[in-house]
């Protein structure tokens, strides 16, 4: 394979070389435990604190509101389970949406099994949560609202500010899973009225296995991992120092390049979307065309199935993903595509392409040219397409 | 994830296409679940399968199992074709991942459905052949009429 075009940046991103470089000394040189007293190790505590500040600045938060975790999934688990436990005496009702990541949905299931009640809100056909639905779902016993900042499959950016205002007005805590959005779009927790926010390092050219949970000062959330006194006694365990350094560097980079990068990605994304919609018949764009992550394009191609499409793209050196059942390991296609109202057979033919900072216009043109060929070939093989053509010719 | 043989049949499917005025056509599967297979058989007066074609909507394994199934029945008589089981298809492909075993079952069902259509049209009975399940795509009545 002479060409590799990586368009699965919502799955993970390449760790930037300067991020790796910043991390390297913390493996074999400055390997001390930040909790140790001697200066050789306590330097690392300062280094960790510095990264906390970098992240806090990126969010308009205070550094003592940033808690390092092993990634987005842990942050989501922590936010939901620990809030549920801490506020159970006030109420046992949680509001979230049908299009959340499984880190939220399955944690919701878990809490339902433990006496909590979870409302899963519908979204519209673009994947947008209606703020009025959030407000209508609030009850006297509602303790938490958790709505993702931007959807990982279809890229729709949710009306976080409106939801934040509603949460505040009703005095309910508001958590947002910003794993896909952080580093891609500007976020200020005070302006948005967010009380907790989950993010992950490897979605923004940082390392895997590191993330954080922002917890607004005053939120009574308990420890989730018990042990030592790290992270203000709220998340025990020796700090993943190289990971934290890498995350800090990645955040610094992402913030510095955000404006330019998004502008470039939006240009390429829209070029991709318009070429696909114009040049490939019987396809649609999933998600909101405007309120959308700069790097996300998600299409459904009628009459074909996603896994076949992915294998054929792979043969051309293109990495992408799909919401088809075959790629999710179940019989049902993506819950997100079903939630925006797609019929199963259309959802099976979905394709997600997520651009990265290295994506070029040539890459996009090559991908569209390849897609045209592959979609035509798969349709030639498809009994559904055969029936459609025969029906149209009648 | 897939064996070399599966990948080979996916990339270079054998006998893909349609047969006009086929002796028997069978369509099985369900668009809802993401797999539909259609088999066309051209069977001569000696009940030998002279030609076979397939069309498949589905994953890599679905395409590969249909392709392999057509290879295995081509040139056989209808009774021999009945012996092409999902196991035979899987073995010929050097195996399938566990979650894809249902694709090989679908391939066997598609052959059976096409043979059933042939038997119905010709008023004959094929030993061991049962009426195929008609669980084909919801909302598209036209397909159902093929049975």
Overview of the structural elements:
The complex is a heterodimer of chains A (394) and B (147). Chain A contains 15 helices and twelve strands. In chain A, strand 5, helix 7 (160-169) and strand 6 form a beta-alpha-beta unit. Chain A is an alpha/beta fold. In chain A, helix 1 runs antiparallel to helix 9 (241-279), helix 9 (241-279) packs across helix 14 and helix 10 packs across helix 14 (361-380). Helix content of chain B is 40%, strand content 17%. Chain B has six helices and three strands. Chain B has helices at residues 4-11, 60-73, 78-81, 86-92, 101-122, 141-144, and strands at 24-30, 35-43, 49-57. Chain B is globular, with a radius of gyration of 14 Å. Chain B starts with a helix and ends with a helix. At the A-B interface, helix 10, helix 13 and helix 15 of A face helix 1, strand 2, strand 3 and helix 2 of B.
Q: What is the topological layout?
A:
The complex is a heterodimer of chains A (394) and B (147).
Chain A: E1 5-6, H1 17-23, H2 25-28, H3 39-59, E2 66-69, H4 72-87, E3 93-97, H5 102-112, E4 117-121, H6 131-137, E5 142-146, H7 160-169, E6 173-177, H8 189-192, E7 196-200, E8 211-215, H9 241-279, E9 283-285, E10 296-301, H10 306-315, E11 318-319, H11 325-328, H12 335-339, H13 344-348, E12 350-354, H14 361-380, H15 383-393
Chain B: H1 4-11, E1 24-30, E2 35-43, E3 49-57, H2 60-73, H3 78-81, H4 86-92, H5 101-122, H6 141-144
Antiparallel strand pairs in B: 1-2, 2-3
Primary descriptors:
heterodimer; A: 394 residues; 7-stranded mixed sheet; 3-stranded antiparallel sheet; 15 helices; 44% helix; B: 147 residues; disordered C terminus
């Amino acid at each position: 394979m002479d060409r590799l075009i990586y368009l699965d940046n919502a799955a993970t991103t390449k760790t930037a070389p300067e991020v790796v470089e910043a991390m390297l000394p913390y493996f074999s040189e400055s390997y001390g435990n930040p909790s140790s007293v001697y200066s050789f190790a306590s330097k690392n505590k300062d280094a960790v604190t510095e990264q906390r500040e970098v992240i806090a600045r990126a969010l308009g938060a205070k550094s003592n509101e940033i808690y390092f975790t092993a990634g987005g999934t842990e942050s989501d688990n922590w936010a939901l389970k620990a809030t549920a436990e801490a506020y159970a005496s006030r109420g046992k009702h949680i509001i979230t949406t049908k299009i959340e990541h499984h880190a939220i949905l399955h944690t919701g299931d878990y809490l339902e099994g433990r006496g909590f009640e979870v409302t899963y809100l519908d979204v519209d056909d673009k994947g947008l949560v209606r703020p009025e639905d959030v407000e209508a779902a609030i009850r006297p016993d509602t303790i938490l609202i958790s709505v993702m900042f931007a959807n990982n499959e279809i890229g729709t950016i949710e009306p976080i500010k409106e939801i934040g205002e509603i949460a505040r007005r009703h005095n309910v805590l508001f958590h947002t899973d910003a794993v896909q959005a952080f580093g891609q779009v500007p976020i200020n927790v005070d302006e948005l009225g967010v009380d907790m926010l989950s993010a992950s390092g490897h979605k923004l050219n940082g390392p895997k296995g590191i993330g954080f949970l922002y917890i607004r000062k005053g939120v009574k959330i308990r420890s989730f991992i018990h042990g030592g006194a790290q992270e203000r006694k709220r998340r025990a365990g020796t700090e993943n120092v190289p990971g934290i350094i890498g995350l800090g560097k990645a955040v610094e980079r992402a913030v510095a390049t955000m404006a330019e990068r998004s502008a470039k990605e939006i240009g390429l994304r829209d070029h991709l979307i318009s070429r696909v919609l114009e040049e490939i018949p019987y396809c649609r764009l999933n998600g909101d065309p405007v309120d959308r992550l700069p790097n996300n394009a998600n299409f459904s191609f009628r009459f074909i199935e996603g896994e076949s499409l992915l294998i054929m793209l792979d043969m051309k050196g293109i990495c992408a993903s799909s919401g088809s059942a075959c790629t999710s390991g179940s019989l049902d296609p993506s819950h997100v595509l079903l939630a925006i109202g797609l019929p199963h057979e259309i959802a099976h033919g979905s394709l997600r392409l997520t651009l990265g900072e290295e994506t070029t216009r040539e890459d996009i043109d090559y991908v569209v040219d390849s897609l045209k060929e592959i979609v035509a070939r798969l349709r030639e093989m498809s009994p559904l397409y055969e029936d459609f053509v025969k029906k149209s010719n009648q | 994830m897939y064996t070399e043989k599966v990948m080979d049949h996916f990339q270079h499917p054998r006998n893909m296409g349609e047969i006009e005025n086929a002796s028997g056509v069978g369509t099985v599967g369900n668009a809802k679940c993401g797999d539909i297979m259609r088999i066309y058989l051209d069977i001569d007066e000696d009940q030998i399968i002279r030609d076979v074609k397939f069309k498949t909507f589905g994953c890599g394994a679905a395409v590969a199992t249909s392709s392999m199934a057509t290879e295995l029945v081509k040139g056989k008589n209808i009774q021999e074709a009945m012996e092409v089981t999902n196991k035979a298809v899987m073995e010929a492909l050097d195996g399938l991942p566990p979650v894809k075993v249902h694709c090989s079952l679908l391939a066997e069902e598609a052959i059976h459905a096409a043979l059933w259509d042939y038997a119905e049209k010709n008023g004959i009975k094929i030993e061991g052949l049962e009426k195929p399940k008609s669980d084909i795509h919801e909302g598209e009545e036209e397909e159902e009429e093929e049975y």
